[in-house]
Design a protein that fits this description.
The structure is a homodimer. Chain A is of the alpha/beta class. Chain A contains nine helices and twelve strands. Chain A has two domains: about 180 residues, MoaB/Mog-like domain (Molybdenum Cofactor Biosythetic Enzyme, Chain A, 3-Layer(aba) Sandwich), CATH 3.40.980.10; about 80 residues, Alpha-Beta Plaits (2-Layer Sandwich). In chain A, about 40% of the residues lie in helices and about 25% in strands. A six-stranded mixed β-sheet of chain A has the order 2-1-3-8-7-6, with helices on both faces. In chain A, strands 10-11-9-12 form a four-stranded antiparallel β-sheet, covered by helices on one side. Chain A starts with 7 loop residues before the first strand and ends with a strand. At the A-B interface, helix 2, strand 2 and helix 3 of A face helix 2 and strand 2 of B.
């Protein structure tokens, strides 16, 4: 396998609240960690305000660099200052049109919220309808924790994912839709581990998170097991399998040494 | 006064560690808060990796948008992967040349660190010298808390500030060099306040920070004063003086109401 299978990804964060310093953008960091773990690469993160022309021209600039994936976050809610869908449609030279799937999903979400007493206003308003007007050729992506659906659009060789700015909603759609794609196009997934006893999971937590910081391409997981033992698993999505296995072995050895130093007992699995 | 006096500012954050999700960029948020407070506007934040060609072409793209100020952060340290100065020089079509002021400042910092026993290696190395090679026409900006000096470069009508990525170093240079410029070009500074007693500073802290979140263009400060009273000051840098005064008065009234609700006693100053 070679590096050609790595996907180049650009993030486009949209929101005046970030530019004025009111909101610390943590979404891009959350996405960056996962994109890196699955062996892909963020080439650029661009943060702009809620302005149609700026969103449109910035999207066109990003498309010129031909990334495999563009992920946007923010500006798809019901309020008047949410400009992302209009800006993206303009940038792609497509019309906004009422998407029936999105309309039904939004309607259902508001109906449920009303039935639960979470909303005073029943039914669809103009503001709520707005979220169902998507650029031509869009696929709506179910938002299981909010109302504004995400959107997927293919433009040339680039797939554009339009996600909400609310972290919980962004994360839900990212997990459901984008992680499977990151996995699918990834290199080989290598996972190895061992068990230990005598000390608990919490004793090595600080060490494993330090190792994760040092090797951001690795996942390090620990699970408590029956009989008071703890299982450690180190995994990587590697394009070069030999290098990937070597790194996993190296880090597993470091963890073994830590366990021994802390008077734990290694049990190979 | 009119909006023409507002400065347009773009931030360029440089560092692979941000793109792979290892580091959460908090520098741009810190700068954004202060730029907003002094009445100016961040138009865009771009985050890229430590690659000469990408730094160079991104700088050229930003210059085409003619911001008044560009602030970069990251990639000016002594290590081989610090590419910012080379990338900026290339983007401006200028040579890197040894800057004597920067050289002397860096040398002095390392001498002091060595004398204090903080360093094993005495004198200038190739890596340390590297930080003194600046694009032609640069003005070095003293780094009072680290070694790599900041850099100021004028290109056309744009002033470029090149700052370190280490937050403490970035903040020191920003405070010493950039805040005075933000102040100088700003609108009128309006400040009003009152005193209260009976309750402490901490009682209203949650409320004032909520108000600061709601109105990011305001500063709200509280100071304990002699005789157990507390002084509240609300200030703004306003381009429209009437609107600025109205907002300050409105927020001061809200704080007065909070103080009264919490059984404090208002003492006008």
């Amino acid at each position: 396998m070679c590096d050609d299978e790595l996907m180049d990804i650009e993030l486009l964060m949209i929101g005046n609240e970030i530019l004025i310093g009111k909101t610390q953008d943590t979404n891009s960091n959350w996405m960056a960690k996962r994109i890196t773990k699955f062996g892909h690469k963020i080439k650029r993160i661009t943060t702009i305000g809620d302005e149609v022309d700026i969103i449109s021209s910035t999207l066109q600039d990003i498309l010129k660099r031909k990334p495999d994936i563009i992920i946007t976050s923010g500006g798809i809610g019901p309020t008047f200052d949410d400009m992302t869908l209009t800006g993206i449609a303009k940038g792609l030279n497509r019309e906004l049109e009422l998407n029936q799937h999105a309309y039904k999903a939004i309607k259902k979400t508001y109906e449920r919220a009303y039935e639960k007493g979470l909303l005073k206003l029943e039914g669809m308003t103009k503001e709520r309808e707005k979220m169902a007007f998507l650029p031509q050729g869009s696929t709506p992506l179910p938002n299981t924790v909010g109302t504004a659906p995400g959107v997927k659009i293919i433009e040339g060789n680039t797939t554009i994912f339009i996600l909400p700015g609310v972290p919980a909603e962004m994360k839900a759609i990212f997990r459901n839709v984008i992680i499977p794609i990151l996995k699918q196009k990834k290199g080989k997934f290598i996972e190895k581990g061992f068990r230990f006893s005598g000390i608990g999971e919490s004793h090595i937590a600080a060490y494993t998170s330090e190792l994760e910081d040092k090797f951001p391409q690795l996942w390090i997981k620990t699970h408590p097991r029956i009989g008071l033992s703890v299982e450690v698993e180190v995994s990587i999505t590697a394009f070069n399998i030999k290098n990937g296995e070597e790194l996993v072995d190296k880090v597993l050895n470091e963890i073994r040494e830590i366990v021994i130093k802390l008077k734990g007992k290694i049990k190979e699995r």
